[in-house]
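Throughout this chapter, every protein is written as a compact record of paired, labelled lines. The reader may check this reading against the record printed directly beneath this paragraph:
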Amino acid sequence: MDPQQHWRDVYTRKAEDQVSWYQPHAALSVAMLQQAGLLADAAVLDVGGGASTLVDDLWQAGLRDLTVLDLAPEALAVAQQRLRAQGLAAAAEAVHWLVADITAVTLAGHRYDVWHDRAVFHFLTDPDQRARYLAQVARAVRPGGLVLVATFAEDGPEKGSGLEVCRYSAADLHATFGDRYRLLSHERQTHATPWGAELHFTWCLCKLGAQQG
């Protein structure tokens, strides 16, 4: 099955709060970004954001230049409906909702101050996919911008939503991105699923340096 159809089926079959990655608030993401000096006028791209509540939390924190990218339009629709239900119709209209594959979409150069990815990168098991992803980061994020990526930890699950994944320690994840990304902080997170299972994640927050050479 092609990846887009897989994720569309997931969001068609399951409620927002019944998927393994559900969290009522993106507390760790927001905390790590704020500790790194997140500004209210920052342009943020949430890669694979789907129905995530990160967009709610960032909007409530005063950020307005927000883009949420996902393969599944059904997931983005859930987030829009949730914002409206909270009385945040302005957010539902103002956020840029982008249905796309992050390894193939054309993004504007140096458009974003923050690249956020909670658990897309670990699904890229093919080296060519990872190379395309890294090229997107380097193109879309301005020099000095923040890159926050979370994956399954080295002792995390071998599959996610039925798909194979790559697992990373903080050192492995940072090495995959390379020296152009200055590591600001990293975290290990134990995430509880809605049914009580524990999933171990690795988080790395980096600052993108200037183009080398």
